[in-house]
Amino acid sequence: MKLKFGKFEYEAEVRRGEELRDVLRDPQTICEDFDAYYIFRDVYEDEEDRESAKRAGVRYDITIMPPRIIGEEYIKTYGHYHPKMNAHTYPELYQVLEGEAIFLLQLPYPEDRRKIADALAIRASNGDVVLVPPDYGHVTINPSNSVLKLANLVARDFSSVYDDYKRMRGACYYFLTPGRWVTNPNYLKVPELRQLNAVRLEFLDVSEIYDLIHTPQKVFFLRESEGCLELARKLYGVSYEFPRH
Known about the structure:
This protein is mainly beta.
């Protein structure tokens, strides 16, 4: 698949169904391989925007996910954590450009990542913005019959960390038809799922996160995890005080 974006055409990085076997509740339900979703990394409308993103220290990506049910499970991304920047990991900013999404976020205990301290399911639709706070891993689910198209903005030094999701066969919850959550039994501790709606990040003062590549002062929190902690608390009631387990 190719994406025409501004003056350029981009080739997709394709995530295949066979790759998703690692993180599915029922991997045996995949009878033949297929294109699960398409990722277009570091995309810009022109060279000026590309240089603006570099100066801001961020990268803009687009993901396109056609609708599909695999067994009983809605199609989803593989899932990943983020690398550490200092004491915490990089945050990430998403926006739904088309369709509907559920962002499943989870915060593992530092000393045992098989145990989860907090789990959030954030529903978002066209135009909604979702922040992935520092230290959280995440999966994006397409729970609809329509194509999901979403964008993300992240620090340029960022790279996805997939190992824990592969080891645990996905996130701490699976989302199944006709719209039910079931826990992943491979985890040792799974908290009650907090279900939230996406919020508008009014302080950004833009309609699309793409425009933030021109205002590096507004995306400083993507490169400074400490500055993002208070924002995560305000938006989602995130607490980094780990309960006893």
